[in-house]
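Journal club prep, notes for RB
We'll compare a predicted complex against what the paper describes. Inputs for the zinc ion case:
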Amino acid sequence: MPLVKMSDLLEDARQEKYAVGAFSVANMEMVMGTIRAAEELKSPIIIQVAQVRLPYSPIEIFGPLMVAAAREAKVPVAVHFDHGLDLEYIKKALDIGFTSVMIDASLMPIEENISLVKEVRDLADKYGADVEAEVGQLAGSEDGSESNERIYSNPLDVKLLYDKTKIDCIALSIGNAHGLYKKEPKLRFDILEEASKLVPIPLVLHGGSGISDDDFRKCIRGGIQKINVATASFNMVYDYVSKYCNTGKRDYFTMSSAIVNGTYESVSKHIKVFGSNNRA
Ligand SMILES: [Zn+2]
């Protein structure tokens, strides 16, 4: 199955009312666990890495690995650059063959956000790649190092950004947060409903680690077709590796398999909730 464009996966999901998981990966083992889950469940999938994670997973080395894994997969896989912060890295990702990029200019006023998104749109068009942007600001930063104030998405800004840039999908801030939730989040479904009426494109939910299954399903019915999951997988990997290390055994390759298996468990669980199984 070839490497595919994210927009093709999301368009099918929109027609059939399910969501495609965008799973963060940090190394080869996590890529293998993620794709194995997708293959066994016959699910389309998005694998992604965020710009803030590149000190751990350099894009020049890890990016080509992600693209190669997608090309080898038995299900459609899109390779996405998550939370791109500047054009230099976005261009690197596109040169490597990523099929979509996110430009996160959500901290800027909407007019500046729009003009940066336009620049990225023009660049991505040269590669035939898709673009995701964000309106509003999530609580918690992508790498979990600081807790930003939440700014809910204004549906009129969502419409303005879409009208001016014609991008492929938009991430919303509706009470979702990066990292783990301290208590169960209360999502603003009214914002989602209004935004989805105003734009004809799939919407994106970041901060998918710890949202209840019922809320996930409600989001999907309301127009969310891409859901980002990072922390849940990283924590599951940590738990699997700790469990192995606590056995007192000392075999590197068993530990390596624990990374694959931990990722597999987290990704499988989310695919089933998102309803993307048996859609590939
Ligand atoms: Zn995010």
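Talking point for the session: The two ends are 10 Å apart (CA to CA).
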